[in-house]
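Cross-check.
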Amino acid sequence: MADRSAPSCHLRLEWVYGYRGHQCRNNLYYTAAKEIVYFVAGVGVVYSPREHRQKFYLGHQDDIISLALHPERVLVATGQVGKEPYICVWDSYTVQTVSVLKDVHTHGIACLAFDLDGQRLVSVGLDSKNTVCVWDWRKGKLLSMAPGHTDRIFDISWDLYQPNKLVSCGVKHIKFWSLCGNSLTPKRGVFGKTGDLQTILCLACARDEVTYSGALNGDIYVWKGINLVRTIQGAHAAGIFSMNACEEGFATGGRDGCVRLWDLNFKPITVIDLRETDQGYKGLSVRSVCWRGDHILVGTQDSEIFEIVVHERNKPFLIMQGHCEGELWALAVHPTKPLAMTGSDDRSVRIWSLIDHALIARCNMEEPIRCAAVSTDGIHLALGMKDGSFTVLRVRDMTEVVHIKDRKEAIHELKYSPDGNFLAVGSNDSSVDIYGVVQRYKKVGECIGSLSFITHMDWSSDSKYIQTNDGNGKRLFYRMPSGKEVTNKEELKGVQWASWTCVSGVEVNGIWPKYSDINDINSVDANFIGQVMVTADDYGIVKLFRYPCLRKGAKFKKYLGHSAHVTNVRWSHDHQWVVSIGGADHSVFQWKFVPDRKLKDSLHIAPQESLVDSNSDESDSDQSDVPELDSEIEQETQITYRRQVYKEDLPQLKEQCKEKRKSAASKRRERAPGNSIRLHFVHGYRGYDCRSNLFYTQTGEIVYHVAAVGVVYNRQQNTQRFYLGHDDDILCLAIHPLKDYVATGQVGRDSSIHIWDTETIKPLSVLKGYHQYGVCAVDFSADGKRLASVGIDDNHTIVLWDWKKGEKLSAVRGSKDKIFVVKINPYMPEKLITVGIKHLKFWRRAGGGLIGRKGCIGAMGRADTMMCAVYGWTEEMAFSGTSTGDVCIWRDVFLIKTVKAHDGPVFSMHALEKGFVTGGKDGVVALWDDTFERCLKTYAIKRAALAPGSKGLLLEDNPSIRAISLGHGHILVGTKNGEILEVDKSGPITLLVQGHMEGEVWGLATHPHLPICATVSDDKTLRIWDLSPSHCMLAVRKLKKGGRCCCFSPDGKALAVGLNDGSFLIVNADTLEDLVSFQHRKDVISEIRFSPGAGKYLAVASCDNFVDIYNVMSSKRVGICKGASSYITHLDWDIRGKLLQVNTGAKEQLFFEAPRGKKQTIPTLEVEKIGWASWTSVLGSCCEGIWPIIGEVTDVTASCLTSDSKVLATGDDFGFVKLFRYPAKGKFGKFKRYVAHSTHVTNVRWTYDDSLLVTVGGADTSLMLWTYEMEGHRDSRQCDSEESDLDSEEDGGYDSDVTRENEINYTIKALSTNIRPMFGIKPHLQQKEPTLDERQGVVRGSRPPVSRALPQPEKLQTNNVGKKKRPIEDLILELVFGYRGKDCRNNVHYLNDGADVIYHTASIGILYNVATGSQSFYQEHNDDILCLTVNQHPKFTNIVATGQETQQICQLQLLLFMCGMQ
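Predicted model, tokenized:
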């Protein structure tokens, strides 16, 4: 069988040829260590000119397009393109990530800049609004964001002399920003008459509010404040792309190929014209300059980097070259020397030395080049062109040998035969031409079997055959040199291939992912000696496979760096290196091949740390060679927590049903009942798909969860208290280190995590907004300040929170497969570990991101599914439990040993001060010493070990253990079967909590005269529960099939149980032994009922649409009720035992006579008069009101009427238990509703004396007891909501003023922001110098007039001849009449001990002096102010906050306000 494992050797990036000059600017700097930092493709490069060495930052997974250097010149920030682009801040010494900033920008990050002290970073996105964001980059926290401009922004910079000021420029604009609080406010630069309005490409800030900017026409514009004060014309002959400020002055570079140096006052010092130097050429364009001391770095459009020493400025030194814009496809390696040849659409062919890492020759051709090959003697270089011709050059001096054009379409592949006699040329015309090398490249053959363009070719070692691949994925063989196709496979049996670069063929089957396009993989090259091959694909990935690679979905090692498609890849002649080339990024990557033996020496080197795992062994079909998953884990991974409808959708659904509401609102509806219920006890514990969710609290109570309830259980008093803040299944629970707070995470569309106090049962914090569908793991840090959580979205997102502030600190995509556990390192809260399906990762926080490293297994074992993890006694020790029963011991990220701990998966693990305790599927709890050297003690969970006084029954021996916790001298154990046990250290076991296991619970019956109920579930058990204060399970019986219904006989001695295979049993209610059993049906028995009185008849309803009636005494079927068109859902007998009421899935209400089962039609009025022995029906006029407005979306599944026929309890698909007055006539009755179950409530029943309501949840498997409280009994109500689906409109509604105010719509007026343009040249600025006030930013009356006329076109010159120019005066607001009282409140306040009054009207805040009657104004708002408040704190006197219609809140400082209006 072929080896499908990944190869044990690997590649290491050694050199990148190229520099990203096109479409980028200002991306080239000197670091503090005098190294040069820049980027190419998706790689940040730090180049040391002294040592001629490169270091690489590989934290991005797409093209980098922006770069900024921290003022201390060690840290670098880079931004990338992509659907969800992010910014990385990294260290140029260590090339490790320091911080990741994400989740805000889309499309890409166009520019970046650090502020003066390097604490903040500003970024500009490529989205339609060109969003500007300011970050506290160390924390990864967004401080402010604002839409930047409608058109592209090219450069942004902080004003290094004024804090909180920024300048941005771009297409036809420049903006001056001020950051105040978390609000970024722009002011557009005023061009006036000093210069033309045009595109500004770059800028630099200087002292005294002066800004210099480079324009598209080559002028430099000088700004003072926001006004253009002068221009330096013709600074460059064309656009100025880059401007760099340093201590000596400014350097500018432009499209004219010149670099100019200016002093600090922008007086010219010198000019360097690179086009005129030795290395220069026509069309050279400068994209980036950096001036440090006497050195200048210049980056050009065509991917070169020059270094210029100022005093030898006519001799620039070329330190990096690469291909220019245009795709790069051609790659060939020299057969005997360490040389690589590349050719590109930029029409150049280049020869690179792999030893010196330098370009050694370059030649320009007439046409774009698409492929290349070197003859076997290394003398000739053949180039295939895009126009269908090919050229042969001499390698020695790049002179032309021949130029031949036989084809019209591009030549995509050519190869010399191993004996050097022939050249095969494959074109997009679907043919391969053979040329004789010795006959001066005369055509000697042609291969025409292909129906599509030729993509790859290989010669056989004896030069007699050729194999080709084409665009259809076909592999064909030809005889050489004639070109005749070989169809007989026998002929090819012994053929050895000289090279293997084809992508289809048996030998390379494994390189293809299971579901992929034929053209995804662009290039392959096999290394026969090392038995490995490399591939290049469209996703920017270079992969290393074993060769041959026969079976699909083989494993590989993958390497990132190229951003888009990798077009070609080749081994060097001696297999020391791999060379790969990128199409769109037109870069050449040189990788060093590290064979296995060298690997062993380098094991101490930590694996590549990056955001996207660049050294990953995983293949696309990772699961295929995994040992079978344990059945329990398998089951768990298949559970889906997605809901058709979430509780969060309710308001929207109700909104959609508005029409129905209106019709219902006109009718008078019954009030909600006065009585209420309160949750009293819950049987059940969520163990089947959760783990480590069971703890002792500070006071020795036990906290766990089931359904949507957090339970705090007092084991001494056998009472429970409930946290009912969740509204759907809780999936995880963690306890604070002080054991007083608990965090629980739930299912939901936007799922929430609640942190609550176990004493007061009050929420302390609710975290929302980051996890979709649900939260499956949470963990507190050792100091209790942080919380980590994992979502169940497709990427299993990991989030780190400051939970008290409700702030997300960092987030990252965790894994495609399920993650089971997250643990924060107790010694270093910046680090965490996650484990899951084939997953174990160590994370460290970096700003807003987390950086993950896979656990390094080495030769110790294979990647296994991990079920649990804990940290050990030092910060680098970690322990994980696997699905095969081992415990893995990790130091840092390396596996140091494994210990066999359990048979089957290790589900739970708990660290003690001096050791560990583990629990597994084998039902054993094991205590270990602190190194896992020896097992100190084991406890098997068995019936025999139960303590004598233990209540309840253990369902089976050795249940699978899902949670373990220690405290108070006991071990607390949670099992998959829904049991919670307490194990005494000396051995005896006490059973504390029990519930049903996985599978829906539908069957529920209460005893006719005892506080007992029975439940039956899909978990194939029938259970009897004591409802008196002892709250325990009295009896349990395993059934051969699951069941859906049960019923006690009227005397309580027998219990009937309907099963899912169509049979039913009647058992003794005390011993649960069979009395009798029947099977007449094939489908599920959905409801079963004894007739009242003596219980003579038994009605059995099935999903076959029939109800069978049996005579209990004679044990015979006596009647069949036919006529239902769907499955039967509910059954009720009348008091006489003569009539049956039946509900069906088609919402029919039918009546049948007993015992024969004859169908009856009874008018509605008559139905109401009949006395029913029980009412569990959900249809009919008596309970019309129980159906919610959104009845199409959700079903009412169950109902039950109290014995006094006053209150009807219902359960529905949303998990609500509701109480209605009976009869609930008329639609949409009012109710009280209670949330504790998570999804559908399948059944509700009152006990015989109505003292308790018993409810069961379907999927949440819980049994809940609610105490029934009469009207007037006002206890601390949990969740007792008086709400109904229709709110208060019809209950007398509002006062008329309130109604009017409620209906005011503020949205239409948002248009007023467009009518008042907030830009343009203010009249008073058009002629005169700004006054002192204006220079300080104080503007009086600075609102432009409202004009509904169209603005004049920019270029229009009006005729001013003969008009006298009158100076335009300033308007100053003097007095405002009016006060906004019609729809605002609490908006008048005294200030300064009653000397002043503050209020608002329109968009103005007014301070009115009582003594003088004068007003002063705050005018920064641009729309109606709707609210105002004054800060009462003595520390903040005279601070006022006002809020306006469009989304801005301004804080105004009234002290400034009074003395000159800020």
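The mean pLDDT is 83. DSSP finds nine helices and 108 strands in the chain. Passed to J.P. for a second look.
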